Amino acid sequence: MSAQLLDGKAVAKRMHTDIKKDVAALQAESGVTPGLATVLVGDDDASRMYVKMKHNRCADVGIESFGHEIPPTASQEEVEKVIDDLNADPRVHGILVQLPLPDHLDTEPILDRIAVHKDVDGLHPLNIGALAIKGRMPMFTPATPTGCLVLLREAELLIDSFSIEGANAVVLGRSNLVGMPMALLLVENNATVTVAHSRTRDLQAVLADADIVVSAVGRPHMVPGEWIKHGAVVIDVATVKVDDPSAKKGYRWVGDVEPEEAMKRAAAMTPVPGGVGPMTVAMLLQNTLNAARRYHA
Ligand code: NAP
Fold first, then answer.
1. Ligand 1: lining residues by beta carbon, under 6 Å
2. Are 32-120 and 143-276 in the same CATH fold?
3. Of 82, 205, 215, 295, which is least packed with CB atoms within 10 Å of its CB?
4. What is the pLDDT of residues 157-196, one digit of tens each?
5. pLDDT single digits (tens) 273-283
6. How far is the CA of 93 from the centre of ligand 1 (A)?
7. Nearest protein Cα to ligand 1, atom 36
8. Which CATH class is domain 143-276?
9. Where are the domains of the chain?
């Protein structure tokens, strides 16, 4: 048996169609065009490519986007001033700071400075805190973990016997960006959650009973396919560029989970690329639309 593919590209495309309709409806009702501002500090090629992709998708669905490129030598104060200006700009409903920031900058105070109602990446401590408190609703949930959750819901539709509720879920990684909010979202959705990290003693044993695996480490093929439980649903968040002389571009993107054997054992699995990446962008667009609706309600 081979795993069903959790096609993030296709799910994201469906979401874009809905978002485009909703953006047009908001414009017709209130004259408001949702606006997303991106903040790119430095000249990292991959970061620039991710930002460009986000602007292109905004254009596809009718969201206005504002790009702010800041030189790599910018000071903490200069970056914070850009955030302050965007917080005050009524055309901007969502602010995204592309991570990682150059080493000399302190990321947390910059993210904390984003107005909580414009925090479409969902990384403000108030939003993460609300996610962790039972009965509290964050204004936004972080884009990548929320995209993973949508893919798990998709798996529920594809596989009769699969349900997030009551499942044993293992999240690999405990970063603020992916691992921890993912674990919180899974708990919120009634999974029984284990968070594995660099100090976890026996990862194979931890994975042996995992009905859900969400892997966000960034170490190519660190999880052998044989470690995946038969019938599990696997979401591979990692996207790492590795050299591949046989590929046209000389490189390819790989995830944490070795896919060949994993695909034989899992019930459903995301491809890398084309799994979680497109979902992250779709969730960002959805959060920006929600921010604009809330702002003008
Ligand atoms: P990160 O901040 O570097 O966190 C990596 C996590 O992996 C840490 O918590 C670390 O544990 C853990 N780890 C390291 N070695 C491990 C091991 N042997 N076993 C288990 N856990 C281990 O990375 P991130 O920002 O969360 O991103 C993770 C990956 O997801 C990267 O490849 C990134 O490119 C990708 N990503 C993709 C998207 C997308 O849209 N597709 C979005 C965001 C991130 P410690 O805490 O103990 O150090």
1. 144, 172-175, 177-179, 196-200, 203, 216-218, 222, 237-240, 276-277, 280
2. yes
3. 205
4. 999 999 999 999 999 999 999 999 999 999 999 999 999 9
5. 999 999 999 99
6. 29
7. 238
8. alpha beta
9. 32-120, 143-276
Which strands sit side by side in the sheet containing 268-269, from one edge to the other? Answer: 4-5, 268-269, 233-236, 212-215, 168-172, 192-196
User: Residue holding tokens 């019938």?
Assistant: 231
Active site residues: 54, 98, 121
First-to-last C-alpha distance (Å) of the chain: 50
**Closest residue by Cα to residue 169 from 79, 93, 115, 235:** 235
Q: Whose CA is nearest to atom 8 of ligand 1?
A: 173
Q: Is the pTM for the entire model greater than 0.85? A: yes
Q: What residue's CA is closest to ligand 1, atom 4? A: 175
197 Cα nearest atom in ligand 1: 21
66: left (phi over 0), alpha (psi -120 to 50) or beta: beta
CATH of 32-120, picked from 3.40.50.10860, 3.90.950.20, 3.30.390.50, 3.30.2130.10, is: 3.40.50.10860
Pocket test for ligand 1, best of 44, 121, 175, 213 (most atoms within 8 A of CB): 175
At 247-265, the pLDDT tens digits run 999 999 999 999 999 999 9
Q: What are phi and psi of 24, to 5 degrees?
A: -65, -40
